[in-house]
Structures are given as structure tokens and as C-alpha cells.
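Email to the structure team, subject: GH15 family glucan-1,4-alpha-glucosidase model.

Hi all, the expression group asked for a predicted structure before they design truncation constructs. Nothing fancy, just the C-alpha cells so they can compare against earlier work. One-line instruction: predict GH15 family glucan-1,4-alpha-glucosidase, return C-alpha cells.
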Amino acid sequence: MNNLDYGIIGNCRSAALISKTGSLEWCCLPEFDSSSVFAKILDEEIGGSFEINVGENYSIEQRYKKDSAILITIFSEGKNIFEVHDFMPRYYKENGGYQSPPEVVRYIKHISGRPKFSVKYDPRLEYATGETKTYVKHNFVVSLTEGEKFDTVFLYTSYNKNAVVEGREMEVTEDGYFLFGYNEKILLPSTRKLYLELERTKVYWLNWVNKTPNYKKYNNQIMRSAITLKLLSYDKSGAVLAAATTSLPETIGEVRNWDYRFCWIRDSSMVIKVMSELGHKNIARRYLQFIIDLIPDKDEKLQIMYGINKEKKLTEVSLEHLSGYKGSKPVRVGNAAYKQKQNDIYGILMDVIYEQLAKFSMDIENGEELWGITKGIVWIVGNHWKEADKGIWEFRAEDRHFTFSKVLCWVAIDRAIKVAKILGKSVKIEKWTLLEKEIREDIHENAWNKKKNAFVQSYGSSHLDASVLLMEPYGFINAKDPRYVGTVKAIEAELSNDGLLYRYKNEDDFGLPSSSFTICTFWFINSLFKIGEEEKAMAQFDKLLSYSNHLGLFSEDIDFKTKRLLGNFPQAYSHLALIECAVNFSKKEGEEKILESMRE
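Reply from the structure team: attached below.
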């Protein structure tokens, strides 16, 4: 059992997690970062869930409808078969824009026979603080809490409402539905109307997937990962979330539990780069607007992360009444890391701005604002690149001169020069070129450790760090450069554990991690591939893919021993790195086929 055997559904406004037996165990309404309506994943006793229960003789299977975010759970006992099609509506409105209401539809599809099921409908509003009371009304079931905050949620269904609330057994003889949502409906739903919503949502996803190129290798995995990244994007502001959950621990029973329902500049920018490479221009355009909106003053430093509605203050509190995932406390809401200084975010953001201008320069909105941001970033990096920081892994203790942060400061200047060339701003190029050279030489001098034959985690350190592998993809060093090859080999020797990678091995504020950070393993596989160890890279990639859950989804971490998924879920980082690896492998195969046909 993987224990994170959940599927995600969503509509770019919020999301829900449904277990492989059809139990809805995480959902926040009306938006991703609202308080939870169902949170059994964080407390099996009081968290709240919406379960579809069947007799012991039933077998249960689960899959996604191909090329969509519609999750299908199949319940069968001989001839008695029905399916639950779970989705959050998202489709084009006739007058433009999208319909994305804060609601979940559970469409019950009768397949054959007379299957029976019962429901456990147990919403616990406001992260299960206080008491949630449920009342059966004429047209709907309403659940409300009046504790510290007043909140309500509404359930509509084609089944007998009293039978639903009381958990009595019901028979499926035709299609039916459950719809729970944040708002009371003005027009009452019906099975026919919700079938139409299901079909419209399916068409939306088919059209969206159709914009993504087909790949010769790993196409299904690339598509599922791309859909997952899309589900973690928040349409209203352009923000991209790191994950859909809070406080799923990196290690069971320990305290590395964080709220990931925010927009980290680093994670989001990496997602946007990958998505625009897959041809999804709109998500990139919205994200750049999100960034422009965040930087009103030219000298305002970027925070490392923001709320999805551009909030700058993300106060962290613990919900003491929740027992946590598998007893892992505390459950945190908010994230104190927003106050940290991490110098790499400027390079990562500058890389995205450059990519967008290089791809769509004739077509880009906000060119002037982006040039303004570019100049601002160069000014900040020029003044601060020599300072120590917290680094990509957010060490909460002392600041250091992290190699990754320095490399990304170099990236910021390198991409700014390229942007200046695209926009014909030659005056800046000369001055910026001197700064680019100064940072590059500084890294080669201070980050290289002769004894280790590798670039190390921070200046003067002997510790290795997986993030240093990104020197090559960001263009700082060539894959065949002996220094880079040496770094990849040293990282393999020191940080690999049965093919899974530690981020680093030096003790941090919480001791040595016992789980592997999934993105690091993908980075390592990519590096192996780039230095020419292609067969080995492919074998390790296939092995890593086998550790996903039953639907091909990844969380943040994988336990070294048991290979179970850990950490927040699904994790944008893991899926963007999966896509990068898979696309590189697929491109290589395409290039080889072209060479073969030329030889023939």
C-alpha cells in the first residue's frame, strides 16, 4: 500500500483528493487555500470525508478518463456494476471565460445489474474546528458550523436525502448524482444537467490536452503530469501551487510538515517553463501577469513565495486539534518561510521571462513591464549576489554562500543580457557582461572542491548537494565538461541510495532526512543521460516511475526503504521534473530515427 493512493480532481480554482476506494478525503472550498470541508487525510477520526461504501464482495478499480482530469472508480460484484465519475466542473462559457464553480460532482453511472451502495457524508467545516451540523431541507442537505467562523456547504442529490445522510443502503438502477458545493444553487441540478457538465468538462480537458505535442516515448506519463500541473494552477491570479495539500509529512511521525498551497517563485517558474515548452502559452501569460502585479516598486525585493491571491503575509499557525497524517503533528496552515531570503529566485524568474520573450517576442503583452522587471532584477542581483542566503532547501538556521544560489545569480544576468539583445537594448549589454563574467569566475573559483572532484553545496564546504546538478540545464557548464561529469559521479557516490537521491547529507535543522526528495532523483537521471550514460539513465527512470501511485502520481518524497510516497501531494516539482526527463529521452529517440533515415 502506497498510502498516498489518491487521485486529484480540480478546476483551477480548488482541488479534491479521492482515495482508490472512492472516499473523498481532502477538499478546501471555495479555493485551494480555503479551510477544509473534508480532511480525513489529516485526521481519520474528526477530519471529515465523503465515502462511497459497498459490500465486501465488490472489487474496486480506479483510473482517469483518458486525457482528462475526470476520475473514474469502478465498483463491481458479478453483474452488479456501477461507476463513480468524480470531477470539478470546468468548461468554456458561451460568452467567453470559464465556468469553474467551487463544487464537486460525483456522477453515478449505472453499468449493469442492481448494485447497492451506501454513503458516509460527513463534512467537517473550517478544518474540523467546532461542530458541523447537517440538516435535510426540501431541495438540498445543508451543513454548517458556527464556531469561531460561520461557514456552510450544500449537497444536492438524485438519491433519497435522508437515506444519504443516515448512511442507509441504496440501489443503483439508473444514473444519478451527488453535487456538493460552497454556494446554494439558484437553478436546481438534475441528472441530465450534470451529465452535460460531465461531458463539457471532458471536452475542456480533451481540447487542453490536444494543445500538447505527442511524444514517442512516455507520452502517457507526460500527459498525466501536464494535467496534474494544470490542476495546480490557479486561474484567477495566474499563481501556481507547489502542491494541493498541507502538512503531509516528509517522514511519518516527524515534524517536517509544511503548507504547500502557496505560490513559490522557484517552483512556479520551473512549472511555467516546462508548460510553455509543451505549448501552453496561456498559463505562462497569466503567471507573468501575476509576477508583474507583485512588483509595484522598482527596488522591491521579491519574496520567495506568495499567497495564491497575491498575499504577501503568510502567517504560520498550528492546528493542534488535528492528529496529523498517520499521527504526524503538527498540522500547519500558512508558511513562515515567506520571510526567508533566497537569492536563486531571481535567476529562475529571469529564465522564464527570457524563454517567453524568445518564443513569443512578437506576441508578448507587457514587454515594457518585463524589461522594467529585468532591469530591476539585474540591479538587485548586482547589489546582493555576494551575500549569503538560505538556499533552495530553505535551511532555517545560518545563511551560507550556496552554490546553487550563486549559479542562479549568474543565470539572472546571463538571461538579462539575452533579453537586452532581443529588445535591442545594447547600452546595458556591455555593463552586464562584466557582471556575468565576475559571477561566473567567482563560482568556478569558490564552489569547486579538488578533493571531491565536484562542485559542492556551498563555498568552502565538502558537502554535496543535488541542486548543483542544475548547473548544466541552466547553461552554466557543458554536460561533457570534466568538472560537471566529476560532479555527477561524486553526487551518485555520496547521495544515491538504491537509485534514490538525498537532497544533501549534512545535517540540517531537523537532522538527516530518511526520505528521498523525488525531484532530485529526476535531476540525477537527467544528468546521467546528459553525460552519456543513457541506458543507465533510462533504466533508473523506469524504476522511479514504478514508485508512483496507481494513477501515475507523485508526492514530494519517497521513503528509501519502503518506497512509499511521502510529503505533500501531488507535488508540482516531481511532475515537472518527470516531464523534463521524459521529453529529453523522447527527443533523443526522435533524433536517432532522423539520423537512421538519413543513413538509409
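The mean pLDDT is 93. The radius of gyration is 25 Å. Ping us if the truncation boundaries need rechecking.
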